[in-house]
Amino acid sequence: MSTPQNSAAWLKHIRQDVQSMHAYAIQDSTGMVKLDAMENPFSLPPELQKQLGERLGALALNRYPGDRVNVLRAELAKYAHMPEGFDIMLGNGSDELITLISMACDVPGASILAPLPGFVMYAMSAQLQGVRFHGVPLMANFELDEAAMLNAIATHQPAVVYLAYPNNPTGTLWDADVIERIVVAQGEQGGLVVMDEAYQPFASQTYMDRVAQHGHVLLMRTLSKFGLAGVRLGYMVGPKALIAEIDKVRPPYNISVLNCECALFALEHANVFAEQAVKIRQEREKLSQALALLPGVQVFPSQANMLLVRMPDATKCFEGMKSKGILVKNVSKMHPLLSNCLRLTVGTPEENVRMLAALKESL
Each residue of 40-75: pLDDT tens digit? Predict the structure, then answer.
């Protein structure tokens, strides 16, 4: 058997910027209380698990996805109260939709703009598509810097502005009037706005009731925080003509029959997931109050299913909690504004008690 000659020669075909990147890291959670990824901690009740299993088992897995995807689009549009004259497209999670937006908007000189710290996929999707990314720092309290955002829009004239509502990793639900002025400014220079409502089930406000006022705004959501993180299904609504253009770059059959049927089943039992969201919001408030009593700990207001907390030594606390079987997210190196911050997913009441105890011991 011959030895391959210059086995790394293929590297010349891999882009230099890709070679210098790090792959998206997922923490090993084996044997841990997993509170690092903003998942809904509640599973389906046993009876619903049984019903879903029977339904999935009867699917024609030998066939490509068919009209059930359009049934799901219609049901999601109804569930989300999509306005008249709008359309809806589906993605393999919000991540795919973000990628498709970058692909569709990749014209010469295009750029994408978003506040920082924010969801990493906005910048990553831009980079992978060869589109410039402009990050605008938030203020120290994680509110939008309106003047800086408006100046950046005027200077860079971005193709797309992303606004997470609420924001990840801070949980902040930004001021509605500030958002409206940013949306208007971006529209006046001919760009698009994407309102990312991944955490909508836990927030007190939505942009859905205002989205019809603008012809340049897309609203994106996911079923991950609804309670189906493992199903990988995101959706985006917007004016029909705009959705039609972005939908052209969507791969055919991007939603599997299994994902589709799981989502339809969940929507049929939306009340179960709504009750879970109420419990998570209640737990978030209890957890926030308990954290605020700890010496040296600052907890930031959140309208998501997570809490951002700052402490004297985030890395020490993170490692201490991990040694006690509690896995959270150390975001302290993600951005200077997040110095010594941990992001804590809100879990079940029992998980939250354990997390709080481990955090206290690890301070």
Answer: 999 999 999 999 999 999 999 999 999 999 999 999
The confidence score (pLDDT) of residue 7 equals: 73
* CA nearest to 287, candidates 358, 337, 225: 358
Gap between the Cα atoms of 191 and 185, Å rounded: 9
* Residue 209 burial (CB count, 10 A): 10
Instruction: Count H helices and E strands in the chain, helices first.
Output: 12, 13
- What percent of the chain is modeled with pLDDT above 90? 90
Q: Is 187 left (phi over 0), alpha (psi -120 to 50) or beta?
A: alpha
Architecture of domain 25-40+271-362: Alpha-Beta Complex (3.90)
Q: Does residue 320 register a pLDDT over 70?
A: yes
Q: What ranges do the domains of the chain cover?
A: 25-40+271-362, 61-268
CA distance 174 to 157: 22
- Per residue, the 3-state secondary structure of 89-132, as one string, reads EEECHHHHHHHHHHHHCCCCCCEEEEEECCCHHHHHHHHHHCCE
- 25-40+271-362 and 61-268 have identical folds: no
Structure confidence at residue 9 as a pLDDT band (50, 70, 90): confident
Q: 86 is written with which tokens?
A: 């709008």
Rounded to 5°, the CA angle 312-123-76 comes to 100
* Helix, strand or coil, per DSSP, at residue 164: strand
Answer yes or no: pTM beyond 0.85.
Answer: yes
Domain 61-268, CATH number (from 3.50.50.60, 3.40.640.10, 2.40.50.730, 3.40.50.720) = 3.40.640.10
Which burial class, exposed, middle or buried, applies to 50 when counting CB atoms under 10 A from its CB (0-12, 13-18, 19+)? exposed
Q: Return the half-sphere exposure (C-beta side, CA atoms, 13 A cut-off) of residue 160.
A: 28
Average pLDDT over residues 283-303: 97
Instruction: Give the tens place of pLDDT for each residue, 247-291.
Output: 999 999 999 999 999 999 999 999 999 999 999 999 999 999 999
Residue tagged 């990314």 (tokens): 133
